Amino acid sequence: MNMRRSKVIPAAMLLGIAAVIVFAMAQEPGPRGREMPPPKLSDAYVVGGIRHGISYFPRAAYDFVKPKTAGELDFLHYHTYDEVTAILRKWADAYPNIVDLYSVGKSFEGRDIWQITITNKSTGKDTDKPAMFIEGNRHSGEVTAAESALWFAWHILGGYGQDPALTKLVDTKAIYVRVKNNPDGSELYLNTAQSNRSTVRPYDDDRDGLLDEDPPEDLDGDGFILQVRKKVEPGKGSMTIDPADPSGRLMKRAEAGKGDYTVTSEGLDNDGDGRVNEDGIGGLDLHRNYPENWRPMPGRDLTGRGFTQGGAGEYPLSEPETRAVFTFLLEHPNVSVVQTMDTTVPMLLHGPSTSRMSESMFPEDMKIYRYFDEQGKTITGYADAGDTYWDYANLGRADRDMRARAAEMGFEIPREPEGQPLFGHSPDFGYLYYGAVWYGDELWNGGRAKDYDGDGRVTDLENLRYIDEELGGRYFKPWTKFTHPKLGEVEIGGFNPKFWRQNPPVEILEEWIKKEALFNLFLAQSLPQVKIVSAGIKPVKKEADTFEIVAVFSNEGFLPTALKMADRVKIVRPDAVSVRLPAGAELASGVRVRQDIGFIQQNEKKEIRWKVKIKPGTAGQAEVSISSTRGGVARTAVKIG
Ligand SMILES: [Zn+2]
Fold this sequence. Notes:
Low-confidence stretches: 1-32
Helix content: 25-40%
Strand order of the largest sheet: 3-4-6-5-11-15
Largest sheet: 6 strands, mixed
Oligomer: single chain
Structural class: alpha+beta
Number of strands: 26
CATH superfamily of the domain at 530-640: Immunoglobulins
Shape: elongated
CATH architecture of the domain at 530-640: Sandwich
Bound molecules: zinc ion
């Protein structure tokens, strides 16, 4: 951490401490609707790292995070780190022949980042098999991604030995599952009212030289950072109650000069800079920390004329969580398919992120990505699929609601489609550096549940109706009177930011995690798989003691044994075939034991011949084998004599 040395730090520290004291004093337990007293340190959730702001928060005991039965997996709640750890341990104990549990490194706060390998150990090592890597919860609040990775593993393990396709998958492939890439951020999200982008490493979001000095406060102690609306004189505010909503819960941007409400985020201005909640815990983005197309953070391009990337980190792979993905994958080049999940759109999302597919992808590889996009849409029902630079950037361009919501958040979605670059983004590392099929799918629809009037759009009014009628009103907090220390009489309320906007309600969680997991299963079942179609020996006419071992090799997987990009960046070696001969047999002169055969497309056949000299009376077995970095290995015996 490189804190900038400036004369304001002591003051900021003082301010931070002062804020806590004020907080404490101002929060004498008073009448209902007043602020919550600060937590006793012993009960508090403490966040690692040295920062100018507060590092401990009241615990939020969310029902959404409570299991039906303690210690049991159920997809009607979001699993905490300890629960996931216990479940992975249970699986490793229950399935010793097909599950390995290990830590791939420590998070910023020192938690083990757990991972499992699912493969039948008796059919070969994981590293000898075509493999898929799947992970979730890199972004702290996108806890649905962890649940989908958990469901994926649970489904495969549950089907092993029962379901032939799942059994074959485990017998022939290796599946690496990292349920929580970023346990620190995920735990902060599930155990306090706070939320942040990813790592909790202190970060100066608003570039005022202070780190994490102004997080939000859960003033009313309901566990969520909601909206604060205040009735003001007409024209003094920018918002008003949406007349379309008879219940008076929905707020909308008012015409200029007509607003009679202000709507702000729940919290205080801790550093007196006139803004509220502008620099909470952390702020770096683990998804901008990859080495491919990495760019420095704002203010670090000394020309001021290049591109920069918010949250990128001090340097590529500066964050242990991202480094733990990079290192694992480079040490396991047998992985040719990766899924690293997020929320929300929903969308099947991949690279490139600084140019269009047609500009940076080999046509053959692009064809594969497009095929998976279409299959994925069929399997998941998502409307959108495509690249980050263009397709993702132009989402919602035609969607009036999206544009309205963007406008409410103060930014304008231009009408004309244009590309938006993202730097240090994992899908770029995934394809351009690692030569793989790499998805970063966006799960959940951000709380656009049901289009009651069938006009192709889902408005917040329809969302309110859905929450009222289908979910007992549980995901919209009715506006509740509150005495705000600065604003006086206000109301706190709004849509649930965590389990409506950013993640699905627990009642429909499994539906969402399952459909994504079934797409990932489809990807896993598309892995390449080399095989020896036939291998035999026959005499060579008119040459004494001379025979030919003839073998035909193929690939029974959908994916080729390597994408074009994988070959270009040499993350894979050409597939190679070899023969091993028994005593009494030797290769004819000039014939090589090992022959590189390039790469094999689906069902393509490659015939290889080895001319051999065999002494009369020789009896034994030759072994023919094929080894492919990403297509696996196969061996067979050829009887001699
Ligand atoms: Zn994300």
